[in-house]
Amino acid sequence: MIVFYLFFYCSAFAQEIYMKTLPDGTIKFTDSPEGEDYVLFNVNGPPPKKSAVSSKNFPLLNVWDDYLLESSVTHGVPFALLKAICVAESGMNPGVVSKAGAIGLMQLMPKTAQYLKVDPWDPQQNVDGGANYIRKQIDRFQNYELALAAYNAGPGNVKKYNGIPPFKETQVYVRRVMDIYQHFLTQNGTVSQ
Predict the structure, then answer these.
(1) Within the chain, what is the greatest distance between any pair of CA atoms?
(2) Which is it for strands 39-41 and 27-30: parallel, antiparallel or unpaired?
(3) Which residues are catalytic?
(4) Among 180, 128, 173, 168, which residue's Cα sits nearest to residue 146?
């Protein structure tokens, strides 16, 4: 099991990661797929639909729960909301980097991480920084949907449009994160196979 996580974590630094489920249920990850049965994990695409959120599709789904719980308590953000943001932002992959340069589980931009005084490459600090940032947005906008829109498109855009900006990416992001959040609430934040 440790070898699996080490392999996955090290492979995550490649630009594209592919995965496939083997007949025995084992999930194999690679940065160089050997056939058409591999699926690309696309951190730059839209968040997954709640029906796709399972430990089968996201093998690291419950690995970071201790960090999420600690940051949830520290910053007063629901555990299920933080976990939904992580699934949407990174697929629970701590080494992923978006095309825009956002890093890690909560996809912190380097300047945001610097402002929050966290190392975005450290999963615990990344989660804590993301929790701190979403808490600031919740306090500012008094609403989870607007806070999520600010997390995705920036608080300036939420103010400019006096609501969720008319960007398709942001509208899909807010809807999917809220769906995943509701999904986790019905499962107490954890998902089994």
Answers:
(1) 52
(2) unpaired
(3) 89
(4) 173
- DSSP characters over 121-147: TSHHHHHHHHHHHHHHHHHHHSSHHHH
Q: What tokens does 48 get?
A: 């997954």
Distance of CA 164 to the CA centre of its chain: 20
**Does 151 have pLDDT greater than 90?**
yes
Give residue-wise pLDDT tens across range 11-67. 444 445 566 666 655 556 566 667 666 665 555 555 555 556 666 666 778 889 999
Helices (H) and strands (E) in the chain, counts: 8, 3
pTM for this structure? 0.73
Angle at 53 between CA 147 and CA 80, to 5 degrees: 40
Outline where 154-186 has alpha helix (H): 155-160, 168-186
Q: Token digits for 46?
A: 């839209």
